[in-house]
Specification:
With about 475 residues, the protein is mainly alpha-helical. The chain is built from 18 helices and six strands. The protein has one domain: Ammonium transporter fold (Orthogonal Bundle), CATH 1.10.3430. The strands form three sheets. Strands 1-2 form a two-stranded antiparallel ribbon. A two-stranded antiparallel ribbon has the order 3-4. Helix 2 packs parallel to helix 5, helix 10 packs antiparallel against helix 11 and helix 10 packs parallel to helix 12.
């Protein structure tokens, strides 16, 4: 009969009544966008923003972490982040591999939310797609977090120590923050807002990266003094994948292709663009010329800042957040980083500034600008709002600060413990001899076949003195 739906496309075990194919397609697409930020986005960016002799090592750190987190995630870490409660800040470890679990409708644990002087029951969330989709989506967030952390350690961490560090940190740091804020843990119950990972991902990776950098130690003196990118155009290619990938990063967090996801995507690009322009204008005003790498840093701080409130703030607030994220992290990187204390810790790519500072800024400004109607579209807690909108907004701002302090304290403590434990078995830092040679000594490989000694053909000079040794120099002719 003409127009009849083929049997293969009718509701069946592969297409149950609860499945929304649009939501499922958007969620898997969003997850892939986030995955592309890491592979190949950060692989390309890291391999290009460092000296030629560290290109392979830096890219491989990201590549290895992407694969290692996948295995940890499906064997134990997913349920530690989103499963049944073990502790107020931790879920029970169990595999996310069973067919019966993966093909069933996805759900996030219901929990009682302490709110004002009483409590409300936040119902079980049931997105209209299988658990397999949720496991995939959330895994991409876990992978990018540890890869962002790696940016603080490029150019000197022992690759074998990194291979041990990754599963330990994902298990004992990432899962704690994810469960506490997203999986029904105590910060979620208290009403701390983190729309898409400003705290779980960015504040966490920035603080842990700085802490790990302290324990690993600095790059060689020559690398700290001069650390030019080996391919700025490829840095831009990696940054472009990062920027466009953020469409899925924030747009996928309503767990549905709905109105709020559209708001989140729009605000993401508004804030990132504003931040990039502000950072660039500050470079021109204070240093006389725009920096391509500086613009990338401004782009990243904007993307990070909007993440905690992407679908919860209005467009004008996204612009305000972009102005703040393009200026405050610029100040901490260009001015405060030159303080003697900060100079003692070698944060290679300035992850503390671009992710920790910007993540904290985004979380606290969300506590100011979260709009009540938008909050009701997404949050489980009724009547949530930022301080700008009165009511309980002032308390929300305080909760945002308290949530950030927990993430900061936990990452300093647990990252230090992990580094100390790994150092008992493996040296955290590459030997001085290998630091001189780079990739060829560590991997027996070189990034480029041409120019056996790429440094001899370097006809540009990157003025990193104004960046405190961070690999964000401005190119200028010698």
């Amino acid at each position: 009969m003409a127009g009849e739906i083929p049997i293969a496309y009718r509701n069946s075990s592969s297409s149950p009544d609860w499945l929304n194919k649009g939501d499922n397609a958007w969620q898997m697409t969003s997850a892939t966008f986030v995955g592309l930020q890491s592979m190949p986005g950060l692989v390309i960016l890291y391999g290009s923003i460092v000296k030629k002799k560290w290109a392979i090592n830096s890219a491989f750190m990201a590549l290895y972490a992407f694969a290692a987190v996948w295995i940890c995630w499906v064997i134990w870490a997913y349920n530690m982040s989103f499963g049944d409660r073990l502790l107020p800040f931790w879920g029970k470890a169990r595999p996310a591999l069973g067919q019966s679990f993966l093909v069933a409708q996805s759900e996030l644990t219901a929990t009682t939310v302490r709110y004002h002087n009483g409590s409300v029951e936040a119902g079980m969330l049931h997105p209209f797609y299988p658990a397999a989709t949720m496991v995939y989506f959330q895994c991409m967030f876990a992978t990018i977090t540890i890869i962002l952390l790696a940016g603080s350690l490029l150019g000197r961490m022992n690759i074998k120590a990194w291979m041990a560090f990754v599963p330990l940190w994902v298990t004992f740091s990432y899962t704690i923050c994810a469960f506490s804020l997203w999986g029904g843990g105590f910060l979620f119950q208290w009403g701390v807002i983190d729309y898409s990972g400003g705290y779980v991902i960015h504040l966490s990776s920035g603080i842990a990266g700085l802490t790990a950098a302290y324990w690993v130690g600095p790059r060689s003196a020559s690398d700290r003094e001069r650390f030019p990118p080996n391919n700025i155009l490829l840095v831009l290619a990696g940054a472009g994948l990062l920027w466009l990938g953020w469409t899925g990063f924030n747009g996928g967090d309503p767990y549905s292709a709905n109105i709020d996801s559209s708001m989140a995507v729009l605000n993401t690009h508004i804030c990132a663009s504003t931040s990039l322009l502000v950072w660039t204008l500050l470079d021109v005003f204070f240093f006389g010329k725009p920096s391509v790498i500086g613009a990338v840093q401004g782009m990243i701080t904007g993307l990070v800042c909007i993440t905690p409130g992407a679908g919860l703030v209005q467009g004008w607030a996204a612009i305000v957040m972009g102005i703040l994220s393009g200026s405050i992290p610029w100040y901490t990187m260009m001015v405060l980083h030159k303080w003697s204390f900060m100079q003692k810790i070698d944060d290679t790519l300035g992850v503390f500034h671009t992710h920790a500072v910007a993540g904290f800024l985004g979380g606290t400004t969300t506590g100011l600008f979260a709009e009540p109607v938008l909050c009701n579209l997404f949050l489980s807690i009724p009547d949530s709002r930022g301080a700008f909108y009165g009511g309980d907004g002032a308390s929300q701002f305080g909760r945002q600060i308290a949530g950030a302090l927990f993430v900061i304290a936990w990452n300093i403590i647990i990252t230090s413990i992990i580094c100390v434990l790994v150092s008992l078995v493996l040296p955290l830092r590459i030997s001085d001899e290998q630091l001189i040679i780079g990739d060829d000594a560590v991997h027996g490989e070189e990034a480029y076949a041409i120019w056996a000694e790429g440094e001899l053909n370097d006809i540009t000079h990157h003025d990193e003195s104004r960046h405190g040794g961070i690999a964000v120099g401005v190119t200028q002719n010698v």
